[in-house]
Design goal:
This protein is an alpha/beta fold and about 325 residues long. Helix content is about 45%, strand content about 15%. The protein has 14 helices and eleven strands. It has a five-stranded parallel sheet. A two-stranded antiparallel ribbon has the order 3-4. The chain has a two-stranded antiparallel ribbon with strand order 6-7. Strand 6 and strand 7 form a beta hairpin. Helix 1 packs across helix 8. The radius of gyration is 21 Å and the shape is globular.
């Protein structure tokens, strides 16, 4: 068991996280929830699926994150003709030696933006599975490790569904969060028009060093997860299955398949990161409840009845939280 974080360590980590949050908030105005969720996912070393209409700043958010962290960034526009080798890399003939050498693709950046990921074919989408889970890619039988840290930030448009390929459940499960990016209000639009030239976000400089970023990751791992909170996470995920004895009524009615063990691991890791960002050395029930929807909303496979009654996964998770008590009685 890792040593509990000291108050001074929590304070140092909190100051670094606050600096990162302030920087991202300059890029994405008045989107505090989105900024917090992306930052929490990074601290938990997880991938993020950003869902929203075009023009809301998703790409600029990813570019700003890379600048603040001082990490290499690559953007890949996913299209129907994109091939797996276009993102993983491939072997080419060296002009001098006439031997095959591996030429890395854009996946070998630390932060990769997979723009409109649902527009590529399932074959290309599946090329991300190994990268997102094992942090490596295998080309022609040879495995190549990806840089550390490594994050995939993917976007998809929720309304233009013609000509797209929905992400399979196995790939959705690799994303720590699915974050909905909402529209902004009139005041925010006015601020963008008056404070930015042609809408360009402000220039950012790295806010953390590689050593301090590694320190943040290590601090997140040392945030204490009490047994009672771990039990609560386990009961939440168990109750997301319609066949479980303790399944929530909303789950029995509207869910075909619930969360996997990876969902429980994701919820625990994300709750640790959120607790640290709040200046807490241990996870509480509040962090689990706050993040349950973001972790589970893309991991629940809804039934046909849910589509008929227009019930969303978010509403099902709300029913799940209302049904499962924090303390098992």
């Amino acid at each position: 068991m890792a040593e509990v974080l000291s108050p001074s360590e929590v304070q140092v980590a909190g100051e670094a996280i606050a600096t990162l949050r302030a920087g991202l908030s300059k890029v994405l105005l008045d989107q505090g929830v989105v900024v917090d969720r992306v930052l929490t996912a990074v601290l938990a070393r997880g991938h993020v699926l950003l869902e929203g209409l075009p023009g809301l700043g998703k790409t600029e958010l990813c570019k700003g994150l890379a600048k603040l962290l001082g990490l290499p960034f690559k953007r890949v526009q996913f299209t129907p003709d994109l091939l797996p080798g276009d993102i993983t890399g491939t072997y080419v003939i060296d002009g001098d030696t006439r031997a095959f050498v591996f030429r890395p693709g854009p996946l070998f950046a630390s932060i990769v933006l997979a723009d409109e990921i649902n527009r590529s074919s399932p074959k290309t989408q599946s090329a991300l599975l190994e990268a997102m889970q094992e942090r490596s890619v295998t080309v022609l039988g040879t495995t190549h490790p990806l840089p550390t840290p490594f994050f995939v930030l993917a976007t998809q448009n929720p309304i233009e569904l013609e000509g797209t390929y929905p992400l399979p459940e196995a790939q959705l499960d690799r994303f720590l969060f699915r974050v909905l990016v909402p529209q902004v209000g009139a005041k925010t639009l006015a601020a963008i028009l008056t404070q930015r030239v042609r809408g360009a976000p402000p220039a950012l400089e790295p806010a953390v060093t590689p050593a301090s970023l590694d320190g943040l990751f290590a601090a997140v791992d040392r945030v204490h997860l009490p047994q009672a909170v771990a039990d609560y996470v386990g009961r939440l995920v168990e109750a997301s299955h319609p066949t479980a004895p303790a399944a929530a009524p909303a789950v029995r009615r509207f869910v075909k398949y619930g969360g996997s063990p990876r969902a429980a691991l994701a919820l625990a890791a994300a709750s640790r990161a959120l607790a640290l960002s709040k200046g807490k050395p241990n996870v509480g029930f509040d962090e689990v409840r706050e993040l349950a929807g973001t972790v589970l909303n893309h991991r629940l496979v809804l039934s046909y009845e849910a589509s008929l009654e227009k019930v969303s996964a978010t509403e099902v998770v709300e029913g799940l939280l209302a049904h499962v008590p924090e303390v098992d009685r």
